[in-house]
Design brief:
The complex is a heterodimer of chains A (471) and B (1003). Chain A has 471 residues and is an alpha/beta fold. Chain A is built from 13 helices and 16 strands. Chain A has one domain: Alkaline Phosphatase, subunit A (3-Layer(aba) Sandwich). In chain A, β15 and β16 form a beta hairpin. The two termini of chain A are 45 Å apart. Chain B has 5 domains: 245 residues, Jelly Rolls (Sandwich), CATH 2.60.120; 90 residues, no CATH class; 158 residues, serine acetyltransferase, domain 1 (Orthogonal Bundle), CATH 1.10.3130; 251 residues, no CATH class; 76 residues. In chain B, 51% of the residues are buried.
Chain lengths: 471, 1003
């Protein structure tokens, strides 16, 4: 453990340290105003922000790019054949590149949507209708072909899993606009597949308060529901009693900011408890809204509810919301797998975009759809027919952005004719992260945190802001 | 030295290697202005220039030669780039260009240079970063190393690896930069995973690059090359480049045209024959030269340069695998070549320090000496008995007890040290805490459980002079003592019940090690024996199950489930073991030395691999136990979460199908076994993992441990023998066993082991160690606040049979320990951090103690000791102590993670204390806590009946261990009566008490 040895002996902490230790997910600004208006831990946006909040739709397991947003007609022609040498030779030699396997046509058709005419797979008829809002980036790539480290590079920038998540950096940089809710909220779905990587919402070397708060779609922020038998007044009485006792105790021992912070944390918790259920309660939403998010259908209800909650959180000033839909890891039976995953997410995602737009929130809210990697254009193993699936492929994959100042209806970058590796405008996770930060008004190079004598930045050595993504 | 060879190579030499040339660009055909030509060989098209700020063609100084001017934009820019006619996929690729950073024109010193050439598969546009996995060579400000803050030449395959050379950029100088990009795997699809870079190399420098970086996540072919400026390149910076070439050979890529480099004077074309013909004398010729010209910087263990020339083995590259001289080959020995270097950054003695160069005669002397076999006089310059002045490496010496004026305050000798420090600083100790407080403090500290009201009463009623001491003895004899102090050890051991990493598959019988640790503390097992069992339990005779289980310490390392490279999978686990052993037992941050000699401590890379060599013939696994009496429960589903159990069974099922595993009812444990030195009667049973590390005894037995150059598994260096760090005494005559290593740990002459443990014991009592960095006793660690006290405790430990309980008695019976918590303005002004213990350093209870305290308050705790863990589903029915909750790394119990319990990834010496808003929500609203509040209310009602005052008294006694005063009583009554429902009111009141600062702090 790297631990500052000072202030361990139970004496007054510095104000700054107290700020660091005494809250979770509450923005430094909110806390600061509570604690004698002391300054925030990090600066405000460095430049004009296009977006105020971000919703990251993380598709864990790795959706196949050639089955979703990167159609490859040549795959159909070469179905069952080996990868032509001219393309194979460019495929990085990393484990499970699948380059010696047989090509596999996408089981899904593609259609042009919207004014932009961007092709979207039949998996996503609803999202397709929103394609003019999407900026599809078809040339993402990295080199990590396994889920855990892949999820880490996708969400933290390196595969090791010891650095802060992007959400933590964003919360650190922006503070929290919500007085009563955590600044960084994370939903983990119950679907099967690789285990969620804690680093993906962890604070790394940043103070713990910037880590994501994991909530579930049934109850929202954990432990915000009072046990049965409690009225608000009961709780207030209880808190007042505790405060009285705690302050008395404090007066006996003399100055002690750690104890003071603990007293304050009860008030903070109380506010969170008061606001969170309402923020997470979708029962008041109209029937048409619920339908828009697919809440009326069994297969899309869970993710739909999370998307709907995400919108409500944005309305409440939460900066950073990460949704994790697992189970895209289609090593076999890709057709069935991707159909099921798409049924669970297509309507909710389209509903989210549509709803944000009609409420005028989309221009302030950046929505990102991405997996930890894509899938090989070839099939895995010797399966045939509908049993065929694809292996992991970080060498080339697709993500999309919408809202938050993004110029929709455009495609950036391209992969080769089979969808294996980028041939134009290749981007790394660091480039994507630099772009997301930029949209929030944060300059990757100025958002730094001193750690072990190094001024660490979110993108390690910097990434390229993908400027053409924005209008 | 770059010019020594060129004359012989000019003209004729070039044509012989022309076939190796891939592409060339000399820019001579261009006109001043924007680059628009398409000439040069080996390119697909012309140069692409940036729309932000393009590279410009300018006239080179003083001739008709053209060069290219590049300037910054204040952000990332790619001023020019070009596509090769064919992508290059060969196993190696060389590149060279000339480069000059013009002198600063403004007076302001500019400390922010950045300029690189990149080699990529794609252009990426004007602003592409070409960093992630892309080879870059150029210059940047070093953010670490000896040249930190200076602009130096770098090699990087971003974004995780940069190598900073020590060659500092000098403005105005013309440089020839050469790089070699190569593939470990020559396959055309494989990655260019190695990048070497030279600045102004000579032909003979082939094996001595200025920087090397290895990164497997790199490009697999190169089609585009380009130059880039960055945020740190200023608009006014002027960078000139010229003479770019890509080639397949070292010979071809070096540019030997004299005119292109601004060389002050020409020298001989070849190495002249040596002026020395007679036999060189070490004593009369070499030693005086070394002493006079080299030793100022290259002598002694902490030589600033990192290279020492006063030890023959170090000249031969003993600790790094990187020799400075090759006996018999003077011409290729670095200590000779550097004396002739033209490069001021390489030249020795360094001209920048105002040192005169060696005369030719002197240089030749060195060369001849090496040619003649590098004879050495061991009497004049013996191999050092490597030692260090650092305090923690000095032998433990029992100090005399200091005298103090405050004799009446002293209760154990510990107090004499504390009082002396107080007197020296003018501090006044706080008075002794009240008896109620003391029994609560002692009980929580020694057993992790608060006293129940009857215990408090008994203590209050014992007015004898021995009441306190008897209490200490009762608590030390309690079986719960081992649970409390064993948990401290489990933090250090990074113990858990699963493999870790992505799949995190359970280790079903890892709980046996937890019980072993508890039992060892309860038995007050001598600490040296405790270490020996954990390090070498499989080697010890006679064979005992207890010892096999003890190897769970080593086997607590994580192991990946899907690492296909078995060498990496194995090495990662071994590294985990070395790091934990070094930190836990020796208080050394060994991990730094995995890739290079430790920067601060006298621990070489060789030392690291010597320790690693202790473990290379062994492996973690399920090990059979022999005692027929061994309890052998098999109801795994009761001690794994439902999710973990299902996952474990499905993974096991796959292996059963593949005939790699079978379920067994034979008693076994999760431990570590050597194929070579482990007792052959121990049977290793198969392991459930997604892709298990194969167990191959014959291969393990034959494994010879090697130093890994730069820590890379793919770069095995010299064979090393197992042993301990040399600063603690040489040990490499022969391989030693882990048993011998443990004997060395327990030897009274070992300066670290007793100090480190005495310090940890102190830390667990007071919250902070005498050394505040308990896992780092090295130079970067904190110095001890009371050095004599630490040594005295270490002596006491060793002289009393390594008894940990002896240390407890010395500490908890002291007056220092019995002080009350009280702020004191004058003391705080002198010692704001309470380093010298002028009052009780209150601290929050650990996660386990908080939950356990709740269960004591309600009277529900099931006090059973040991056995399989409790699955989360059974938590509320079992109501066992917190340390028995199932410890799967990815599913740690909420009650623990909520309050800063460690993640069991690396050894945890100090737990953090966070105060966050989810904690009150958990303590107030979770089902677990609500049920406990209900149980407490029931208990209170049973004991007190309906009378409010009696209820308040009982509730205070059960939670805070004291009586309420009259104000508190009144306030409590108000709280109780706030609810019309009496039962509910009582429960809410009880619930509030369980949340008080006083309840969760050790006061």
């Amino acid at each position: 453990m790297n631990f500052d040895s000072k202030n361990l002996r139970g004496l007054p902490l510095s104000r700054r340290e107290m700020l660091h230790r005494s809250t979770l997910g509450m923005g430094s600004i909110a806390l600061a105003s509570m604690l004698n208006g002391q300054g925030a831990a990090a600066s405000l946006p460095h430049r004009r922000a296009r977006a105020k909040s971000i919703i990251f739709l993380f598709m864990s397991g790795g959706p196949g790019q050639t089955d979703t947003f990167d159609p490859k007609p040549l795959l159909e022609k070469l179905d069952g054949q080996p990868v032509p040498e001219s393309i194979a030779v460019n495929v990085p030699k990393i484990p499970r590149s699948g380059v010696n396997s047989k090509l596999m046509a996408s089981p899904f058709g593609f259609q042009k949507y919207g004014q932009s005419g961007i092709e979207v797979s039949d998996l996503f008829p609803e999202t397709g209708k929103m394609v003019d809002e999407l900026c599809v980036i078809r040339s993402m790539n990295h080199r990590i072909p396994v889920h855990g480290p892949g999820e880490c590079i996708a969400l933290t920038g390196t595969a090791v899993g010891d650095r802060p998540s992007m959400g933590a950096w964003m919360t650190y940089g922006l503070g929290n606009a919500s007085e009563n809710l955590p600044g960084f909220v994370v939903f983990l779905s119950n679907s099967s597949g690789p285990a969620p990587q804690r680093a993906g919402w962890g604070a790394g070397f940043l103070p713990a308060q910037y880590q994501g708060t994991v909530v579930d779609s049934a109850s929202g922020v954990p432990f915000t529901t009072m046990p049965s038998g409690y009225s608000n007044q009961n709780r207030r009485e209880q808190l007042d009693f505790m405060k009285w006792m705690n302050e008395r105790n404090l007066a006996q021992v003399g100055a002690d900011s750690e104890l003071e912070a603990r007293i304050a944390s009860y008030e903070l918790g109380y506010r969170m408890q008061a606001s969170a259920p309402e923020a997470f309660d979708v029962s008041g939403e109209s029937e048409s809204t619920r339908q828009m998010y697919g809440l009326d259908q069994k297969h899309s209800a869970e993710f739909g509810k999370q998307c709907l909650m995400a919108r409500r959180l944005v309305e409440n000033g939460v900066r950073c919301i990460q949704l994790r839909n697992g189970g895209w890891d289609a090593h076999g039976s890709l057709e069935g797998n991707h159909r099921a995953r798409a049924r669970a997410t297509d309507k909710p995602i389209a509903g989210l975009l549509q709803d944000l737009k009609q409420r005028g929130l989309l221009e302030d809210t950046l929505v990102v759809w991405a997996g930890e990697f894509g899938r090989t254009p070839t099939t895995e193993g010797s399966a045939t027919g509908a049993k065929r699936g694809r292996d992991h492929s970080p060498a080339g994959y697709t993500v999309w952005l919408a809202g938050g100042g993004v110029k929709g209806g455009q495609i950036i970058g391209a992969t080769d004719e089979l969808g294996y590796v980028p041939v134009d405008r290749p981007f790394s996770p660091a480039d994507l992260h630099a772009t997301l930060l930029d949209a929030l008004g944060l300059d990757q190079h100025h958002l730094s945190y001193e750690h072990k004598n190094r001024a660490e930045i979110p993108t390690v050595f910097g990434g390229e802001v993908i400027r053409e993504a924005f209008s | 030295m770059r010019l020594f060879f060129f004359l012989s190579l000019l003209f004729g030499a070039n044509s012989s290697v022309a076939a190796d040339r891939i592409s060339t660009e000399e820019f001579t055909y261009l006109k001043s202005g924007l680059i628009s030509g398409r000439e040069g060989e080996g390119w697909k098209g012309g140069w692409i220039v940036s729309g932000q700020r393009p590279g410009m063609v300018v006239d080179g100084a003083g001739s008709n030669v053209r060069e290219i001017l590049i300037q910054g934009t204040g952000e990332r820019n790619n001023p020019l780039r070009r596509e090769l006619s064919e992508p290059v996929r060969d196993a190696e690729l060389f590149v060279r260009f000339h480069f000059r950073y013009a002198p600063e024109q403004s007076k302001e010193p500019d400390q922010s240079e950045f300029f690189v050439m990149w080699l990529d598969r794609f252009d990426g546009g004007d602003r592409a970063v070409h960093s992630a996995g892309i080879p870059n060579i150029g210059i940047h400000i070093a953010d670490q190393g000896p040249k930190k803050g200076k602009a130096v030449f770098i090699a990087r395959i971003g974004s995780e690896r940069t190598t900073w050379s020590t060659v500092e950029l000098k403005r105005g100088e013309l440089y020839q930069v050469v790089a070699r990009l190569s593939k470990t795997d020559p396959d055309e699809r494989a990655a260019y995973d190695r990048l070497e870079m030279w600045v102004n190399p000579d032909r003979s420098d082939r094996d001595n690059p200025n920087a090397t970086v290895i990164q497997k996540n790199s490009v697999n072919y190169v089609r585009w090359v380009g130059f880039a400026t960055g945020r740190k390149t200023e608009r006014s910076d002027r960078i000139f480049i010229d003479n770019l070439a890509l080639s397949r050979s070292w010979e071809d890529v070096l540019d030997h045209s004299v005119d292109s480099l601004s060389v002050p004077e020409k020298k001989e074309s070849e190495l002249p024959p040596s002026l020395w013909t007679k036999k060189v004398s070490f004593e009369h010729d070499v030693y005086p030269l070394l002493k006079k010209r080299c030793f100022a910087c290259h002598e002694g263990a902490n030589s600033e340069s990192g290279y020492r020339l006063d030890v023959r083995s170090e000249v031969l590259g003993y600790s790094t695998g990187d020799p400075l001289a090759i006996p018999g080959d003077g011409a290729n020995s670095r200590i000779f070549t550097v004396t002739l270097s033209e490069d001021p950054d390489k030249k020795m003695p360094p001209p920048e320090a105002g040192k005169k160069a060696l005369t030719q005669l002197e240089s030749d002397l060195l060369r001849t000496w090496i040619d003649q076999g590098m004879e050495w006089d061991e009497k004049m310059l013996p191999e050092p008995n490597s030692s260090s002045d650092h305090w923690s490496f000095q032998p433990v010496e029992r100090p005399p007890l200091p005298s103090t004026k405050r004799r009446e305050w002293v209760k154990t000798p510990v107090d004499q040290f504390i009082a002396a420090a107080h007197e020296e600083r003018g501090l006044t100790p706080a008075k002794e805490a009240g008896k109620r407080r003391l029994i609560r403090r002692l009980s929580l500290d020694l057993t992790g459980l608060p006293p129940d009201p009857s215990e408090i009463e008994a203590f209050l009623n014992d007015t004898s002079g021995t009441a306190y001491d008897s209490l200490v003895e009762r608590l030390l004899a309690s079986p719960h003592y081992g649970e409390r102090w064993g948990r401290h050890w489990l933090d250090l051991a990074r113990w858990s019940e699963s493999h870790g990493y992505q799949h995190d598959i359970p280790r079903p019988y890892a709980w046996r090690y937890r019980d072993y640790v508890i039992q060892s503390f309860n038995d007050d097992k001598p600490y040296d024996r405790f270490l020996k069992e954990q390090l070498a339990g499989d080697e010890l005779t006679p064979l005992a199950d207890e010892n096999i289980i003890a190897t769970g310490f080593l086997a607590s390392a994580r192991i990946s489930g899907n690492q296909m490279d078995k060498a990496i999978q194995r090495n990662d686990a071994l590294v985990d073991i070395v790091n934990a052993t070094g930190s836990v037992m020796l208080g050394l941050t060994m991990e730094c030395a995995q890739c290079h000699n430790h920067k601060f401590d006298q621990i070489s890379q060789r030392d690291y691999y010597k320790m690693l060599a202790l473990f290379t013939d062994g492996q973690m696994g399920n090990l059979s136990l022999r005692d027929p009496e061994t309890p052998n429960p098999t109801d795994l589903e009761n001690w794994m979460s439902e999710k973990a159990y299902k996952f474990y069974m499905s993974e096991a099922g796959k292996l059963v199908k593949a005939k790699k595993f079978e379920h067994t009812n034979r008693p076994h444990t999760w431990g570590f076994l050597s194929a070579k030195t482990g007792n052959p009667e121990i049977e290793r049973l198969p392991v459930v993992n997604r892709d298990p590390l194969p167990w191959n005894p014959e291969v393990l037995k034959a494994t010879r441990a090697r130093l890994l150059v730069r820590g890379e598994v793919s770069q095995p260096g010299p064979v090393v023998k197992s042993g301990w760090p040399e600063v603690l005494g040489r040990s490499d005559a022969e391989n030693i066993t882990r048993t011998e290593f443990a004997d060395w740990l327990g030897d009274p002459s070992n300066p670290l082991v007793s100090r480190v443990w005495a310090n940890r014991v102190w830390q667990y009592h007071f919250g902070t160690g005498l050394v505040a960095t308990p896992g780092d006793f090295g130079i970067q660690g904190q110095a001890p606040s009371h050095p004599e006290l630490l040594d005295w405790l270490a002596s006491e430990l060793m002289e009393n049979g390594w008894s940990t309980k002896h240390l407890h008695r010395l500490i908890v019976r002291s007056a220092a320990y019995r002080q009350e918590r009280r702020f004191h303005e004058a003391n705080a002004a002198i010692d704001p951090d309470n380093t010298y213990l002028w009052n009780w350093p209150r601290r929050r209870l650990e996660a386990e103690a908080i939950r356990d305290s709740v269960l004591i308050a309600t009277g529900e705790l099931n006090p059973a000791v040991g056995g399989p863990s409790v699955s989360p589903e059974r938590d509320e029915t079992a109501l066992r102590r917190t340390l028995y909750l199932a410890q799967r790394r990815s599913e740690m119990p909420r009650a623990m993670t909520m309050f800063d319990a460690p993640e069991a990834v690396t050894s945890c010496s100090v737990r953090g204390v966070s105060t966050v808003a989810l904690q009150p929500l958990y303590l107030l609203n979770s089902d677990f806590m609500n049920h406990r509040a209900g149980a407490l209310a029931e208990k209170v009602k049973t004991l007190a009946g309906e009378d409010s005052d009696a209820q308040i008294e009982i509730a205070f006694a059960r939670t805070l261990g004291r009586r309420p005063d009259s104000e508190e009583k009144a306030r409590s009554r108000m709280m109780l009566n706030s609810s019309p429902d009496k039962k509910r009111g009582l429960q809410q009141f009880c619930h509030a008490l369980l949340n008080l600062n006083e309840f969760v702090y050790l006061n």
